[in-house]
Design brief:
Blueprint lengths: L2 H10 L3 H13 L40 H28 L5 H27 L12 H8 L4 H27 L5 H35 L3 H11 L11 H6 L4 H5 L4
Helix pairs in contact: 1-2, 1-3, 2-4, 3-4, 4-7, 5-6, 6-7
Length: 263
């Protein structure tokens, strides 16, 4: 099956294990699959998802202490939910938008593979604690922006990898700082998992930055004014400190963009 068609097929799978296996199979192919950059696919109603977790409003997600096993599991579940959404986001970027360079599609398939690995690591961690993905309620904030930008790949690159996923670069060290002092083996295991996720996510944001600027150049638009307009149009969340400046710099944000971050 052609590469983007495989991405769409994986996107529609609801069972997390099946979705992860499908993405791994795409990424593990010994020969590069044919990629039809011109294909236009009929969009499904949404990504394949399991019946659980139950989606609730972000303000209704309960706060829990990481000092308890259940609280720690809830925290890691929230990250697993982000990574599950991130698999679908990367697959969506690969199948939805036509007429882009072939390297664009292969980049997002690579991202999907790494997001699948992250989800699997977190799922294994949850199961070691007696929990599973779906055992806690979650919210759908990340996917909302995917829907808002489904008609414009430039807006997608601006507001998903460069905005929402870049927030993960800022948040992960803060979570790790809460976990490191805890005298529990599962807390230290989680820190190591987050180390891997953070390292990979720098690369994912860098891919988003690369294609954002390349598409801006192709359309003849100025990157920074466009970004501000897209953020207002699609009601992107306001960025708040603290920021992981080193990770953002490594992910390709310019010194001017870093200097413009709110303090």
């Amino acid at each position: 099956m052609e590469l983007r068609a495989q991405a769409l097929a994986a996107f529609t799978l609801a069972d997390p294990a099946q979705k992860v296996a499908a993405v791994r199979a795409i990424c593990a192919s010994a020969q590069p699959q044919a990629c039809d950059t011109k294909a236009v696919f009929q969009a499904p109603k949404g990504p394949g998802r399991p019946a659980r977790p139950l989606m609730i409003h972000p303000r209704d997600v309960p706060k829990r202490s990481p000092h308890t096993v259940a609280g720690h599991a809830a925290l890691m579940h929230s990250i697993a939910h982000i990574e599950f959404n991130a698999i679908n986001l990367a697959l969506d970027a690969a199948w939805r938008f036509a007429d882009l360079p072939e390297a664009y599609y292969r980049d997002w398939i690579q991202v999907a593979g790494e997001e699948a690995l992250h989800f699997s690591m977190l799922q294994d961690h949850l199961q070691s604690l007696g929990f599973d993905y779906g055992d806690f309620d979650a919210h759908d904030g990340l996917w909302t922006m995917c829907v808002a930008t489904e008609d414009d790949v430039l807006a997608r690159m601006a507001l998903v990898p460069r905005t929402l996923e870049a927030r993960g670069l800022d948040a992960t060290p803060l979570i790790q700082a809460k976990l490191r002092p805890l005298p529990y083996p599962h807390a230290q295991e989680a820190v190591l998992i987050l180390d891997r996720i953070l390292a990979d996510e720098v690369g994912h944001v860098a891919i988003g930055n690369h294609w954002f600027h390349r598409l801006c150049d192709a359309r003849g638009v100025q990157a920074e004014p466009y970004f501000q307009e897209a953020a207002l149009l699609h009601k992107a969340p306001t960025l708040k400190p603290p920021f992981n400046i080193a990770a953002r710099r490594a992910a390709g944000f310019s010194e001017a963009e870093l200097a413009a971050l709110p303090t």
